[in-house]
């Protein structure tokens, strides 16, 4: 049976319209919300690892997009988009989005190489050394104060008690600096600390940029440095931040700033 021309035209129109309708999840006051927009947000949410793709997730995203469209239409109707402060906020957001896209592209094109990460790890490992030190110290403003403390210690005064007069936060804990690598301290402090025997106290005040120190070495132990594979991600992130910083600085140098 052949369809009449008029009916055939209606069927063809409906067939042509079906794919277009399928491209939208809804329309709000005549404004379509593309299905592609839902797909994009689903991918972003799933990529963050917080949720998995599901009908419930898609429905929630669809409802949110509909609500947002209703709200933006009303906001536009009331003229909020033309307000100066809103325009400025939009421009700030635009700049951030564009800059972040550029930086993300830079990261993709300039990834941290495994050789770079391993070299950085080896450098860090060498700086940390093979020992950790558990030390206490008393920090004072003058050399005479430090000498007086050393004299009291030699006559039997308790280090932890005298440390209460230290002018840094360790005073409340008897001058305890806990376990650390020599690389964590300024060179003058480290040199004096590593020269001590277990239980010994510096014979003379140690001068640094912070003042005068009296140092006691409680103990030493082999350094606990995690293997490369355990910290590879952190090393990569640190190096990537350095590359981004260098990229920013290079752009600033090239710019004509008056």
Automatic annotation (TrEMBL):
Keywords: Isomerase, Rotamase, Signal. Residues 130-219 form the PpiC domain. Residues 1-22 form the signal peptide. Belongs to the PpiC/parvulin rotamase family. This is peptidylprolyl isomerase. InterPro entries: PPIase_dom_sf, PPIase_PpiC, PrsA_foldase, Trigger_fact/SurA_dom_sf. It comes from Massilia agrisoli. PROSITE patterns: PPIC_PPIASE_2 (PS50198).
